Amino acid sequence: MTAPDDTTDPTTLRPTDLRSVRDAVLDSAGGLAIAGAGTAAAWGGDLGPVDAVLDMTGVTGVITHNPGDMTVSVHAGTPLQRLAEELAPHGQHVSFDAARVARGATVGGLVATADAGPSALVHGSLRDLVIGTTVVLADGTVARSGGHVIKNVAGYDLAKLIHGSYGTLGVLVEVVLRLHPAPKRTTTVALDCPLAEAVEHAHRVLDGPYEPVALEWRSDSDGSGDGPAATEAGRLLVRVEGTEDALPGRAQRLREALGAGATEVTSGSDAGEWAAHAERVRGGPGHAVLRIGALPSALPALLAALPGAATPDAALTIGLGTGVATAALPADAAAIEHAHHAVHAAGGTSTLRDRPAGFGGPAWGPPPSAVGVLKAVKTALDPVGRFGPGRFAPWFELTSPGRTT
């Protein structure tokens, strides 16, 4: 493979269906980047030089919706928000609410980045909702897994491998999703409190008969440097679902459990509460945003101890039941590297998401014990390293054609 010329802009290819995706892969000889709506373009490692970019936003639309089976097959370039609009008249939805959905994130991009939202407390991530995929591999092979299997690839469960692969294993073209009935009604109970107090309330909610579908805390601080430290003031949000008749009583019992100061958010303000939470998840300009996963019992203390987290210069969110947090921290490369190592030492995982251009800090922490398996899978599915060079550096990167180190 000829090394790409760093000074030449890559060619943008715009396929519109499975066949044209395959043709685009076969007709281009060098490195390939896969692009969707661009809502997570800066996540993970910095993309290395490529010869072409596959713009998947034209590969869009529902393929098959089976309301009786509660499944839908959709092209990967479909914005999840648009899919939700098509499913709503049938009383069904994808139980998934990642922060960037409102910004037009596509189904394929959400799968590739292993993103998730507050409802993961009950419904899990897309890894739990994807039941079938169609992927084009680097040699043009069209591989399907799940559903009606046409071709298996060396026994791999492609749907699981593609989740969180950041476009490094193949081009995700079609996705089959499990659906759920849309709730009859939802409501949110909120309580203003610092992080330490929110942890105590969360234990009470999770140990009780309240059945939350989301349990999140967000800092009042947006990282602008004004006001109290990010850990010292925030808002606990507990979302519950139910029928029109049953939900008011459940919300009342939840308010009583949380104590004085707990209020039920009015129906007109509920969307705004969660939109504010999503803004904290996304972070603001000038910050380096870390996505952190750890045991729920260990995560609050771990989050508070990160460099810059307990200051007004940070913005924090934490899933108190899921064990997933985001920390928008001052963009200091050494501090982010320290944070990665602290998370790794606690048995957690961390990924760098948005950050200022030219930031230069590490996207990943120390390599996991399974990094050898990751390298083997990469070599098996993309032996020349065409897809997404640099996304998982320094865990592994292509040093010469056909060799992953």
> Which parts are unreliable, with pLDDT below 50 for 5 consecutive residues or more?
1-5, 148-152, 399-404
**What coarse outline follows from CA principal-axis ratios?**
globular
- Helix share bin: 25-40%
- Round the mean pLDDT to the nearest integer and report it: 92
Number of helices: 12
**Terminal residue distance:** 17 Å
Could you give a short account of the major beta sheet? 8 strands, antiparallel
Percentage beta strand: 15-25%
Query: What is the number of strand segments?
Result: 20
Oligomer state equals single chain
Question: Helix/strand/pairing class, anyone?
Answer: alpha+beta
From the alpha carbons, calculate the radius of gyration and give it in angstroms. 22 Å
Widest sheet: strand order?
Answer: 14-11-13-12-16-17-15-18
Brief account:
The protein is built from twelve helices and 20 strands. By secondary structure, the chain is α+β, with helices and mostly antiparallel strands.
List the helices and strands and how they pair.
Elements: E1 11-13, H1 18-27, E2 32-35, E3 52-55, E4 62-66, E5 71-75, H2 80-87, E6 92-93, H3 107-112, H4 120-123, H5 126-129, E7 130-136, E8 142-145, H6 158-162, E9 171-178, E10 180-181, E11 185-192, H7 195-207, E12 214-219, E13 234-242, H8 247-258, E14 263-264, H9 267-282, E15 287-293, H10 299-304, E16 315-319, E17 324-330, H11 333-345, E18 349-352, H12 371-381, E19 398-400, E20 403-404
Parallel strand pairs: 1-3, 2-3
Antiparallel strand pairs: 4-5, 5-9, 6-10, 7-8, 7-9, 11-13, 11-14, 12-13, 12-16, 15-17, 15-18, 16-17, 19-20
